[in-house]
From TrEMBL:
<dbReference type="InterPro" id="IPR036273">
    <property type="entry name" value="CRAL/TRIO_N_dom_sf"/>
</dbReference>
<dbReference type="InterPro" id="IPR036865">
    <property type="entry name" value="CRAL-TRIO_dom_sf"/>
</dbReference>
<dbReference type="InterPro" id="IPR001251">
    <property type="entry name" value="CRAL-TRIO_dom"/>
</dbReference>
<feature type="domain" description="CRAL-TRIO">
    <location>
        <begin position="112"/>
        <end position="263"/>
    </location>
</feature>
<protein>
    <recommendedName>
        <fullName>CRAL-TRIO domain-containing protein</fullName>
    </recommendedName>
</protein>
<dbReference type="Pfam" id="PF00650">
    <property type="entry name" value="CRAL_TRIO"/>
</dbReference>
């Protein structure tokens, strides 16, 4: 039994505190939270099984295996994205699986995108940012839509997204996109491709893009952004305009800064 000081009309009183009851309440509360978490996990597993079963019955022609109709991690991710609505998750997931098959995502390799990757227009950084996110760097000044093959650009985009996601540490779910807009000119503007990039994330890699940095955007970029912004749906809210210095100090250490932001 512990003592607690109470103030009443006649001055301080000593009131007993029942530590046994207090400890019991704390334990019951902890058990309640733990049980709630277990119940939620069990519920999620049941929903994954339900989606998996429906896909097998109604979409048996879709491929199975990793990133296929029976990939439980992928099913859970799309359930989370659709707020655990089974029908909504199935609709979005089947579209994504069909797209992956038609686009040939599994066939993309370093060698197959080498020519366009060698331009340096985009790459996955070797290091994570300070928040533990893989980093996809894009250099629009090296993008020339009147010269480049749009299909090859799209392949590079998807290959790099896959590569970045493969670098996700345990417990991390999002990547960082960094657009180095220094040197951007009218000849680099490509509304169709920018829309493709964000559509890829919205439809096929939902909730994987955590933040997008537009670094040192020149004046000529602003009217282009005003045209692009309405087309990017909710992803436009992830965009942050910032300086090179802000990138250096706010997202990386001295050792992990991408090479093109060092000078």
């Amino acid at each position: 039994m512990a003592l607690r000081t109470c103030h009443g009309i006649g001055g301080p009183l000593i009131a007993p505190i029942n530590l046994t009851k207090t400890t019991s309440r704390i334990r019951n509360r902890q058990l309640s939270v733990r049980n709630c978490s277990l119940d939620q996990s069990q519920s999620h597993k049941q929903l994954v099984s339900e989606v998996k079963s429906k896909l097998e019955k109604e979409y048996s022609s879709l491929p199975a295996g990793k990133n296929g109709r029976d990939d439980e991690d992928m099913i859970l991710w799309f359930l989370k994205d659709r707020k655990f609505s089974v029908e909504a998750a199935i609709a979005k997931l089947t579209r994504a699986i069909k797209w992956r098959q038609e686009f040939g995502v599994s066939k993309l390799t370093e060698e197959s995108v080498k020519n366009v990757a060698d331009t340096g227009k985009a790459y996955v950084h070797d290091f994570l940012d300070i928040y533990g996110r893989p980093v996809l760097v894009v250099v629009p000044s090296k993008h020339l839509p009147d010269v480049d093959d749009p299909v090859e650009n799209e392949k590079l985009c998807v290959f790099l997204v896959e590569k970045a996601l493969a670098k996700l540490p345990d417990g991390k779910e999002e990547i960082l996109g960094v657009f180095d807009l220094r040197g951007f000119g009218i000849e680099n503007a490509d509304l169709k491709f920018l829309t493709f990039v964000f559509d890829v994330f919205y439809y096929y890699y939902p909730s994987r893009l955590g933040e997008v940095l537009f670094v040192d955007a020149p004046f000529v970029f602003k009217p282009f952004w005003q045209l692009a912004k309405p087309l990017l749906k909710s992803y436009a809210s992830l965009v942050r305009f910032c300086s090179v210095d802000a990138v250096r100090k706010g997202y990386f250490t001295e050792e992990t800064i991408p090479a093109n932001f060092r000078n």
